[in-house]
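Box 3.1 — From sequence to structure: PROP1-like PPR domain-containing protein
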Amino acid sequence: MLQSRSFHRTASNAAHRRILSASRNATSTPFFDRVDERMKRDSPYKYEQYLKGKKNAMEKLKWKLEDRNRKMDKWYTARKGGDVNAGVQNLDSNIDQSISYQARSINQTKTVSDFPSTTLRTDFSTNSPFNKFVHPSSSQPTKPSIFSTIAANIQALETKHDDNNPTSFLSDLFQPPKETPRQKQLRDKAMVYHPDHWETYHSIMSAVLSDEKTQRMLSKISKDSKGGQIVEVVKKWLLSDERVVEKEVVGDRWRGLDEVWREGWSRGASTIFEHSNKKVETFSVASIVEDASSADYEEEEEVEVEDQVNSANDAVDGGYESKLLSELKLQQDIFISKLLSAKPELLEDFAPDFEGDKDQHSQSEKEALAAAEIRHHFHKVATRIMSYLGRYCAKRSRSDPMHVAWYKIKESGLRLPEDCISTFLYVVTTMGGNSFGFGSEALLLSSKSLSNETETEENEENAFLVPEEVATYHDLLCRPTESSVSLRVKTLASKGDTETAEELLEAFKKSIQQTNSDELIRLRTYLPILKNYCESKSISAALSVFKRMQSTPGVILEPENYCLLLATMAENGCFWRVIRFTKDSSPVDGAQSLGYNHSCGPELFDEIATEMATDALEISSSSARRLSNALAVGFKNASQPGVEGGNYDDVVSNLKEVHPLAPMPLTRQPAAANELVACRVQLDRSTGVCEVTGSQQRLILLEPDQRKQLHDDLLELSQTQYRIYTQGMAAYDKHAAEDSKDKAAEQLQLFSNWLNTREGDPFTAIVDGANVGYYMQSFDKGRFNYHQIKFMVDTLEAKGENPLVVLPNKYGHTNFIYTSKKEYQELEESEIDIMKDLTRRGKLYKVPPRCLDDFYWMVASVSEQTASRRGSDLSVPSNDPTGRFPGTRPMLITNDQMRDHRLELLEPRLFRRWYGCHIVNYNFTAFVMDESVDGNEIRFAQADFFSREIQGNESPLRSHASAGEGKWGGVAWHFPVNDWDLDERFVIRIPIKVNS
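Predicted structure (token representation):
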């Protein structure tokens, strides 16, 4: 009896438990979490009220559940004694009390006395006052309450209850709600899409179908009745949330295609997209139906899509077909047969009319021909719309619709054009929440709840499914590309199969060499492999991959890649001078075979850091913390000499791990000679000396070949800029339209030749004339001032320099426009005299019209000035006896910050070295016309004394009393950090003991 009571109570509370479960599930979904967080952030008061209401609702639901249990216990007790009427009366009494409580709580005008308890048991018609009970806030009568339903069912069961089976009537007493059509569909998970995926896909597909371009295309096809029918069928299929073909059928076919893809890679990349020599019997659909698109589709890209589809069909009709095309054709047959089984009237409408004897053609032949025509037109329309969908998603960075769209492509066997499948590959590769184009909650082809653990595992597997299948489709249909291989490599690496990912990448790299392809492998393809090896502490494999990355033309290594490798090696003790030969620390196997001179120790760190200095200019603060923490872990026993396992060379380490988000403090205390250094320091701006390590920074100058490269880059950049300018000004300036496209480069080359062939003293200072003339002239009545230019030239000459003023062409005239408001400036006689004097002395160069003066003074600063220099070095040493301030010559006088986006096209390292060596800033009090304050002088900001790039310099050899005999040294590596001050560096020095 206790078991029956337990079962009875469980059944009576089933509905309420479902409500509670649904409430918990609803409030725990990411969507509701985001809503709660947004409300909490934006409106604290509303959020507090919301929590109170939520708490009250849950308490009310809990009270109803407890009240129901009490009532059913009383009813069950009465029934146990055999007196059913007593139990019903007891229940009626409780119901009366409950209704009276509700009526009082809502100030109902009628009282419980208006609803006698006998009515509850004897009158259950729609005219019963109880069934017409209306909530004051409701405008319509509500449905009969659960209490009236229970009472009615009890009365009906009074004559047929069975005391020997107390639970026989429970299914009648508590009948489940009628299942809705949607709930019925959800039960068959294999035939519906996940609601979240479907909603996104449906909204975007609806937008694509309603687009003007799509509507125009569909209207052309719908001109005849058959075309209109096909359009309607395609639209219904695209907007249906039910699958036509089961997942298992489609999945088996794609698993087979994936095996073909893998077998192709095992034989060589070039074989996976070749047609087999197997002959097949095919018939041409085009011979049965007429191509309706020959005269209808006028737009160029629509014709292109049609041509690509027809070319694929021609390949099949030509007597051979690839494995993919063969499987697509079989899938098309399955899809069309299922589609027609649901709409058989299409066969009758598309049945061909034969002339002559109609009886000689069987019904099956007619249906086959009709099905072939339907398939032809269906796939033509569906392919076009899917192409539009791919472009829509690519333009708007949306990958969510691919979950549903890709399955529809698979189940229908669509043969997509090459540009369309490339677009799909781009969408699933580069967009979304993670590297595979989908978020962490990717739920491909699933209709289970997120809370289901089985579905979670299935979703994690499916998160890789769509990108992999798109890549397989792309490779088998077209040819493998870097994008498709990159996607496969990322997928394999994410699954932990790093070795297979590496083999695939190397096979693709080999195929590029065999076919002389211009395909380039990028950093994004190698990086997942490198990260996996580093995370698994496979140092040898990581170093091997890294060396291959360095030698791959398309891979441009970033500072973070070097930091990843160095940090991993540091954590595993690879930079010890004397290595502990244990499982935690050992020499890097194969390091010397990769080209390194050392397999461990500080020397190996120096070799990798030297490579980093050639590829990177600076690091981030997070990378600096990462390296510091890695060295702290790798050298945690460095301050304990003589421990079991070997000699630690008496290296001392005071490093401690810091939080990855904590700022790194500035260190000013000089380090001991044998102390490991990894900290933030500030360099002396005037000397470049590091107060922690004692090393001095160098000013790294442009090498002759680098100067030539910068010169040639400026020529090319000027030509590109001039072409853009003339294209934009052709409609307004007839002279710009008539000029040669190469005029800018030709004029700049003439200027460079003039500098190299001119006689006389070489120029040691190049003046940005426009910058100096407009300096501090933003006040009212301010103007382009020649007196400021003369002031600059006179000052430079007084300091022993030979200046050249580079001036835009318009400022070489007596009047010109000088503001954005088209205001004209007329030069005064004194200013004209200054201009003529500079021209006469050969110290003024006017840039040709429509040419950018920036390129001219940049070229002048790197010009060899062959004839005038006569092989002499123009640089000024720090101890010059004449008092000239030291630095590279010619120096460039300008306050231009070089933020022009065009200059970003220059190689960053060359640009930074050029900027640091040649740019000299200035400051003086502005002129008002020809007047200036007494004692006005120009203060120059000297060019950089040391280069702001990664560099390693030897630390001074020093001895240390606690470290025994010998002296300590080592290379101190200073890394500029992009979010620190200009003079601050992150420094690493691994000390090396030099025996005396």
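Summary of the box: The chain has a mean pLDDT of 76.
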